[in-house]
């Protein structure tokens, strides 16, 4: 899938030390500060191979299953869809030997040649979508986004990937949320040659990677990270993008604080009129209280889209280090 097309990702709601004594205090403070973002991002991940997206009958009663990876065809390694197409263009056999991997088990099978020629629409070597950039750590040159793991919708699992990148995207349209029906953002990559950062980890608490230093134009001032114990119920803000590339500030109210997450309700009428509530693609939006960086939006309540949950930034950053 090319980045020239519009992107829509339906995310499940149910990313130089100085050892000088006289710098110790200043260094400790700098480590507790990161830059809140809120920008809409396009996400591209090149998968570690070619994967099957649907159950497909290939010969007799033999099936390829969604999530299988095709490792070899006729003894030739298959790394990408281009490899698959190149091999098939030269194959004239009626039955083709193929090696696949299914849930970690290597399987050899014979595949009908005509069935193989019809297989291409059910294969993928890339996953992509949209989300929200949470923070940039200028000390480490890293970033974090989403606040939850990417699960490929067709593979129904976190994708195994070779490399990936995030790009600044522009919101073109909003499909509003309503009770029982999550809304979403429709966006497009501004420049697919100009990446914000590379993806190095797709973890439980988000996607993380190396920030592109050339992209200083989207950076703001760092904020101190709030300790979870310091969060209070009451007024707070989120940074997010609902139009173009502009990051805006919207009011929320913290309603509940748990050990690993917090709950909130959207109170900003401008945001509610635009979105109807929390949107798919809003995951990762920074949450700020009293000028300190609390965490990131991660979930919405489908039946009450004004209500959501967030992850503490301290927890999210622990996920970056693992």
Automatic annotation (TrEMBL):
Pfam families for this protein: Peptidase_S55 (PF05580)
Name this polypeptide is given: SpoIVB peptidase
Position of the signal peptide: 1-24
Domain called Peptidase S55: residue spans: 100-322
UniProt keywords, alphabetically: Signal
InterPro entries, A to Z: PDZ_sf (IPR036034), Peptidase_S55 (IPR008763)
């Amino acid at each position: 899938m090319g980045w020239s097309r519009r992107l829509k990702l339906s995310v499940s709601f149910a990313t130089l030390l100085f050892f000088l004594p006289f710098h110790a205090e200043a260094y400790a403070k700098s480590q507790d500060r990161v830059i809140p973002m809120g920008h809409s991002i396009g996400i591209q991940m090149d998968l570690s191979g070619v994967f099957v997206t649907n159950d497909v009958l290939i010969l007799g009663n033999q099936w390829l299953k969604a999530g299988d990876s095709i490792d070899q065809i006729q003894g030739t390694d298959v790394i990408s869809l281009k490899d698959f197409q190149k091999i098939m263009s030269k194959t004239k056999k009626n039955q083709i030997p193929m090696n696949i991997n299914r849930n970690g088990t290597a399987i050899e099978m014979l595949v009908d040649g005509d069935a193989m020629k019809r297989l291409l629409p059910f294969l993928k070597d890339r996953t992509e979508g949209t989300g929200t950039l949470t923070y940039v750590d200028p000390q480490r040159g890293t970033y974090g986004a989403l606040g939850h793991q990417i699960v490929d919708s067709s593979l129904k699992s976190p994708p195994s990937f070779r490399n990936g990148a995030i790009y600044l995207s522009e919101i073109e349209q909003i499909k509003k949320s309503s009770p029982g029906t999550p809304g979403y953002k429709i966006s497009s990559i501004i420049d697919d040659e100009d990446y914000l950062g590379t993806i190095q980890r797709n973890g439980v608490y988000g996607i993380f990677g190396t920030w592109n230093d050339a992209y200083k134009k989207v950076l703001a001032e760092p904020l101190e990270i709030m300790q979870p114990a310091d969060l209070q119920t009451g007024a707070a803000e989120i940074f997010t993008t609902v139009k173009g590339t502009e990051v805006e500030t919207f009011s929320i109210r913290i309603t509940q604080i748990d050990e690993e997450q917090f709950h909130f309700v959207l109170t900003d009428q401008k945001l509610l009129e635009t979105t109807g509530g929390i949107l798919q693609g809003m995951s990762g939006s920074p949450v700020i209280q009293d000028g300190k960086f609390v965490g990131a939006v991660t979930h919405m309540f489908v039946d009450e889209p004004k209500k959501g949950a967030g992850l503490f930034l301290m927890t999210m950053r622990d996920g970056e280090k693992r």
